[in-house]
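Per reviewer request, we include the raw input and output of the structure prediction for the construct analysed in the revised manuscript.
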Amino acid sequence: GDGIRITNSHHVWIDHLEVYDAPDGNLDITDRANFITVSWTKFRYSTNSGDHRYSNLIGAGDNETGDEALLNVTWHHNWWAQNVHERMPRVRFGDVHVFNNYYSSSGNNYCIRAGFHSNVLIENNHFQGVDTPHEAGEDQGTAIIGARGNQYSSTTGAQTTRGTAFTPPYQYTLDAASSIS
């Protein structure tokens, strides 16, 4: 299954890891998990073969209504490297803050997807050579996705924004996107 799965937990910090080649997701956060931080972690796959190179899922399904008002997750200073196809992360429900991350998984499908009842803030990330840095999924318009201060180097595809993203309830300092690599 998943390389790391966080469920029914709160106040968890994943830091300074390399997570790769999981047969399902590299690191998934579901089932009423809350207040999770993932930092300084590298996600990758060793080969570009196989259909399921999906890295990070937040929220298992649109029908998981127990996740409403939960799944508050922060991703910072992570690296999505070679052969990750999508879900960097893919989000349902929750307020998710994605800042100062590096995306270099060329040949991908998409990086960040805001889905059903999600609110995603994307700040000062560096997207290099990837397709569709961020988009809203098939969610009947319930996703909010805000992006600011990001660097897009040799990217293609969507850079979708919709609505006004939430304000994180904590203090943080942003690095310049140009310094992220």
